Sequence to fold (487 residues):
Amino acid sequence: MSLLAEMNDKALKLGVPISVHLDVTYRCNERCVHCYLDHDDHGEMATAEIKDVLTQLSDAGVFFLTISGGEILMRRDLFEILEFARGLLFNVKLKTNGVMIREAEAKRIRELGVEQVQISVYSHRPEVHDAITKLPGSLKRTIEAIRFLRAQGLKVTIANVLMSANMADYSGVVALARELDVVYTLDPTITPKMDGDRSILNLNVGKSALDQVFHDPDLVGNVAEFCAPPPTPGEDIMEGYPCSAGHTFCYISPYGDVFPCVQFPLPSGNVRKQKFLDIWRGSAELKQVRAIRAKDLTTCSSCAHVGTCTRCPGLAYMEGSMLGPSTADCQKSFQRTGIPTANMLRRASMGIGTEIGPLIHIQPMLDASAEAH
Amino acid sequence: MAEKYILRSTAIAARMLGGEMMIMSVKDSTFFTLDPVATAIWQAADGRTALSEIVATRICSEFDVSLETAVRDAEQFAEELATRGILRISDLPISGSEQSASEQTSLQTSLPPT
Fold:
C-alpha cells in the first residue's frame, strides 16, 4: 500500500475529512451544453466567509483542497483566497477552463504553490470545443493557458468530458495532451442538472461509443485486464464503503451548502449556519451516508460487479435512492465486460427499459444565502 | 560544532493526522510523513532557533537520548529534508524575507493543531 493510501486509511479510521472540494462560485464565462449548474449568483460567500471556512477546514484536518466552480477566475478575490489557503498549507488543486489565465496569472499560481491545475478540453478542434462551451475562441485561449501554466512548471491535467458531440475527438485530445506534455483524463458521465432538468442526459455517449472507449488500449492500457469479468466479491468487498464521499471527503457550495460530493447533492448542513466540524461530525445525513456498506445496497449487493463497478452513490441518489443502482454505471460495467448487471437483469425481468427513472429535484438552500445577502 | 539553523519551506502542503505530519512538496508532489520526533523538529524550524536548542528543548526533554546523539541525528534528518526541498538549512539564522520568490507566500504564524 502506498504512503498516501495509508494516510487515507488512517483518515478514514479517525473520521478526518482529509479532502474537500470547494466551489467558490457558480458564475462562469462559458455556457457548456452539459453543465449541471445554475450560473446565476444567488448570494455566493464573500471573501471573509470563505477565509473563515478555510480556517475551519484547516482546523478539521483537511489536507487536499480542490477549488472549483463555475469558473474560479470570475471571482476578483480568487488570488486573495488562494494566498490565504496556501498560508494554511493546504495542498491546492484548481479546476478551471483557463480562458482568463494569461502569463501573469500562471506566474502567480506557481508562486502561490498550487500543486496542480485541471483544465477542461472537449476537443482538439475549435469548432467542436467552442460549440460545447458556447464561447467563440475559447479553445485557443484554453490551450494558451495550458502553455502558460506548463511554462511555469505547473502540473496540468486535461479533463475531457465525453458526450455525443465530441465522441469522435477524444483521440485528438489525447494527442493534444501529449503535445502539451500534460496528463489526460476522460470522463464519460454527464451529471443531471441541479434544477432537475434531465434533458442534458441525452448528451451521454451511446453504448457503442462506451464500448469503443473501454476497448481502446490508449485509454485503458491492458484491455484484457480492464474488461475482464469481475471476480467473485469477498467479505471485504461486501463490508466496504461505496466511495470516500462523506467518509474522508465532502463538498461545499458557493452558498455554504455541504454535500457528500458535488455529484451527491444531499443537503447535509450549511457552514453559514453551523461550524464545519459540527456538520462533519453531527449531520444526520452524513451519518446516514457513512452507515452504508456494499452489503446494504438493495440491488447492487447481489450484482456480479459489486466489487468492480464505478457506482456513484450520488448518481444513485439522484435516480431515487442512495441505496439503489446508478444506471449510468450499470451501462459502463456492462459495456466494459459484456456481463449484465443485477439492475439490468431485474429491469429486464420486469419488462422495464434501461432509461433512468425520475430524478430528485435538488433545491439549493436559498434561505441561507438569502440571509447572508 | 557549528550551529545549524533550519526553516520550513513554504513550497509544501502540510497537515497533522493522528500524531504524524503529512507533507507534500508542491514542486514534485513527493509525499512524506514525519514521526512525532521529526514533527517536533519540523514544527520548531523557524529559521531563528538553533537546531541544537530545538533538540535540547523539544527532543531530549521528551525522549531519553543524549544531546550529542540527538543533534547528530537531527542534522542528518534536516539534510535529508533539505535535499527534498521541504526544509532549508544554514550556518546562519534564516529570515522569512530570504525565501526565494517562488516560495513566497503568507505563512500563517500558527501550525495546524496536533
User: Anything to note?
Assistant: The first strand of chain B starts at residue 5 and ends at 8. Residues 98-114 of chain B have pLDDT under 50 and may be disordered. Helices of chain B lie at 36-43, 51-60, 67-83. Residues 55 and 70 of chain B are 7 Å apart (CA to CA).
